[in-house]
Amino acid sequence: MHNCLLLLAALVFLPFTVGQAPFDLYKLSLRWPPSECNIGQLKCTPTVLNYWVIHGIWPTYENNTAVPQYDKTKNSCAHNPTKENQIKAKLSSIKNTLTQFWPSLRNYAKDKTNLKDWIHEWKFHGQCSDYPTDPLSYFNSALSLRRKNDLAGTRIQPREEPYQAKEIVDAVKQILGATPEITCNTHRPSGMIQLREVRMCFKRAKPPTEPRDCPIQFSGTCNKESDHIRVPPAPSPGHSQVPWLPINIFLLAFCLGIVI
Ligand SMILES: *[C@@H]1O[C@H](CO)[C@@H](O)[C@H](O)[C@H]1NC(C)=O
Fold this sequence. Notes:
This protein has 8 helices and 8 strands; from the N terminus they run αβαβααααβαβββββα. By secondary structure, it is α+β, with helices and mostly antiparallel strands.
């Protein structure tokens, strides 16, 4: 009888020990392309976008660790999550919206490059979300949260002069109603700290809608409210001389023509 109860207990709890601990929140990560593209690690083509784009939406534990990616034997968080080779078909109805708001910074003009990023996010964060077999709803949840918490209208406008970290936090708080996580990188030539990502946290729900404070307030190369953080403007298209080349040649030819 005793053994039988033990066996029963083992059968009940086994699935939980093999799977993962339940996660607590979703972290929506929004990136500022000019800061990602001016540190020499990414060659952003065809242009550096000058609006906030989605990096991902990540199932996260209270201790700020992201849920580890799906692994059939080690991390079977879901029964049979949608495989990566189905992502293209599953997202076809929202491809244009994703291309605009969830673009690959490497080359947003190429479907293949964008798809590669979406597949990466699905494998690392989507398969163990609350949508293991519904990538369309998973990606839509991020699009919808970005739309509802648009950073475009806040005080954080790109400019040469840095902001105090607290100003950035407060500006996000004003639209979100909760404390975000601010992630920075450092622009090497100038040594300036830059705003790289704003991360917004939401209570775990399907779909996530209710904001909550993020487990940490700063990450990357900023760590306190008094830090000075630059929000760099996108390089102006005028900096690229290539489009003007044909006109210059035309003018040169024209002038030469007049002289001759
Ligand atoms: C964070 O919490 C999860 C779930 O409880 C646990 O699996 C993981 O090991 C923890 N990570 C750290 C760094 O403490």
